[in-house]
Amino acid sequence: MVNFKNILFDKELTGNGKNLGNLPEWNLKDLYSHTESKELKQDLTWLKKECEIFANDFRGKLVNLSANEFLACVKRKEKISNVSGRLISFAGLRYYQSTTDGERTKFLSDIQEKITMYTSSLIFFNLELNKLPNGHLDLLYSQNEELSRYKPVFDRIRALQPYQLSDELEKFLHELGIVGDAWEKLFDETISGLEFSIGDELLNLESTLNLLTDHDRSKREMGANELSKVFSKNIKIFARIHNTQAKEKEIIDQWRGMPSPQFGRHLSNHVEPEVVEALRNAVVASYPKLSHRYYELKREWMNLEYLEIWDRNAPLPMESNQTVTWTDATKLVLDAYSGFDTRMAELAEPFFSKGWIDAAVKPGKAPGAFAHPTVTNVHPYIMLNYLGKPRDVMTLAHELGHGVHQLLASKQGEMLSSTPLTLAETASVFGEMLTFRKMLNAAPDLQSRKILMANKVEDMINTVVRQIAFYDFECKLHDARKSGELTPENINALWMSVQAESLGPAFKFMTGYETFWAYIPHFVHSPFYVYAYAFGDGLVNALYAEYEDNPNGFSSKYFEMLEAGGSKHHSELLAPFGLDASDPKFWSKGLSVISSMVDELEKMK
Question: Average model confidence (pLDDT) for the chain?
Fold first, then answer.
């Protein structure tokens, strides 16, 4: 089943929102025409009945099924996942368009509760699967080739076997998930409802964050101070949400016997903890030669004694206040995709022409950006908050990469199409790299090249350094919560403990910046997700280096990797390119790409 609580919010968006052209909105009719549609009601009725029938047909019987019968069982479960995923996708996408709309909030809550209750009878499937004797499934695979396709899915499920609880407790936790969803909705509604007073205007979060990229330093400072003021007023709500969710996770992890708060995420990502640890350590060790060195350069370019936090994403002094229209952004990204392989552009084009993108900033709309795959017989939808700056073009390229990946993987079916988060960022970051390289190659002079390269380095620092700092913050927060309730001041201190280390000595931190953890949706929606960005960036840097060295036949191997979805382990997917993420040198190679770009920028001083 598509789980909307794990929706991926990606970028901090930028721009001024003026003269951008006609920004597209979603056409959700490919899911359902409206909330009272006959098809939606029929699907709800079917889902309730089919879950009951499925449980009656298969509960307590998996061990006795023949290979053909087991395949039929799996296909029926996939159909249930498809219908429930379609329902929750429609409700969730409507909600994220306007999170402060009471009707949309109620509709999403009602759909979530119904799906949770209907599917609670299916808990037995994974539980019984994990009770099958070793070798049982291997025998069935040998008897039915089509069933053997599902081995990667069953392997991931059986990896949870040591941490599985009793049938009754698993059912209880499944149904209790509704409560966790409520805390997430409280976060979403609080964030979307915040208002920031800037002069005579009341702005939402996106527009206020956008001020941090304004050419006018006084406006950036004003935006940062207002963000701090509003976050501080609401900090008790955000602290309560984090305390509750961290404690809930701690209790569940203890019952399951998980060795660490992060371990469940590593299992779901199908990545070894030591690989993540190698990535984390490599990035932290590289802080001085990446972020520290770059921000010292930026401090010199801006002729400042030190950088304030509102200077982190500021335009460079020599950078024009450029606005990119939606039409120009569309052409630029599609041309970059087509330059790599025309199939990329062909897959991306319908997103623009068929209402698969919702781009405008609107009151109540969820902040950030994401690509949601829906279900395999529909198509993905992309949400942006497009405000017209060059970095927004990169966000479009990023989310479109997700969308293309999700389309290609959909042929694997509901169970096999979902890509582990560590690999889910591959196509998105690769799409960004293609777009950046196209812009860089077209740069008319050294100054333009310098600006483009500096912006790319900043994006990569945000993707690698900042996200690993986020990961360290989460690790510290969940560890600290084990010792008792965390006050807002406790959480603020944990946040600041990773900021100076990751950003470096060029920065001075304003009073109030300690509250900026409050608005990051990843911590609430997908704990420990953030290292996937650094994983993806390192992976793509290595991939792109391979592409430049050996372009012949690369795109075919790349498409095969995306089409695999979740059907292969990362080691299998990277092997055709001669890459191995378990080798510490792999991460050093990816980080050296960023370091070499900082080298070039230093020579341009």
Answer: 92
Give me the count of residues in the chain: 605
Q: For 139-171, what is each residue's pLDDT tens digit?
A: 999 999 999 999 999 998 999 889 998 888 988
Position 584 scores a pLDDT of 77
Tokens representing residue 547 in the block: 């592409």
Cα 394 from Cα 434, distance rounded (Å): 10
pLDDT one-digit tens code per residue, 172-229:
888 888 777 889 989 999 998 999 999 889 999 988 998 999 999 999 999 999 999 9
What pLDDT is stored for residue 424 in this prediction?
84
State residue 18's pLDDT score: 58
Catalogue the long-range contacts made by 278-282 (C-beta closer than 8 Å, 24 or more residues apart). 278/582, 278/584, 278/587, 279/468, 279/531, 279/534, 279/535, 279/538, 279/587, 280/468, 280/471, 280/472, 280/531, 280/534, 282/584, 282/587, 282/588, 282/591
- DSSP class of residue 197? E
Q: Which residues pair with 388 in a beta bridge?
A: 15
* Cα Rg of the chain, angstroms: 24
In the structure encoding, which two tokens stand for residue 469, read together? 């700092």
What is the structure's pLDDT at 98?
94
Beta-sheet strands, E only, within 287-349: 307-308
The model's pTM is: 0.82
- Among 94, 118, 104, CA closest to 43: 118
User: What's the helix, strand, coil split of the chain in %, to 5?
Assistant: 70, 5, 25
Q: Which residues, at least 6 apart from 345, have a Cβ–Cβ distance to it below 8 Å?
A: 334, 335, 337, 338
Chain-centroid distance of CA 465 in Å reads: 16
Distance of CA 327 to the CA centre of its chain: 26
Rounded-to-integer distance, Cα 530 and Cα 527, Å: 8
From CA 267, how far away is CA 528, in angstroms rounded? 12
Please give the Cα distance from 155 to 599 (Å, whole number).
44
pLDDT for res 174: 84
Residue 548: count of CB within 10 angstroms of its CB: 10
**Segments in the chain below pLDDT 50:** 1-17
Q: Which pLDDT score is estimated for 35? A: 97
| DSSP designation for 544 | H
**Residue 380 host element (H or E):** none
Chain-centroid distance of CA 61 in Å reads 37
Rounded CA-CA distance 561/572 in Å is 9
Instruction: Answer yes or no: are the C-beta atoms of 339 and 438 closer than 8 Å.
Output: yes
The confidence score (pLDDT) of residue 15 equals 38
Pairing mode of beta strands 196-198, 307-308: unpaired
> So what's the pLDDT on residue 1?
34
CA distance 465 to 442: 28
The backbone torsions φ and ψ at residue 552, rounded to the nearest 5 degrees and listed phi first, read -65, 120
| Residue 12: predicted pLDDT | 38
Kindly state the tokens that stand for 158: 């059986």
Pairing relationship of beta strands 307-308 and 201-203 according to DSSP bridges: unpaired
Domains, the chain: 31-159 (1.20.140.70)
* pLDDT in the model for residue 517: 98
Cα separation of the two ends of the chain: 53
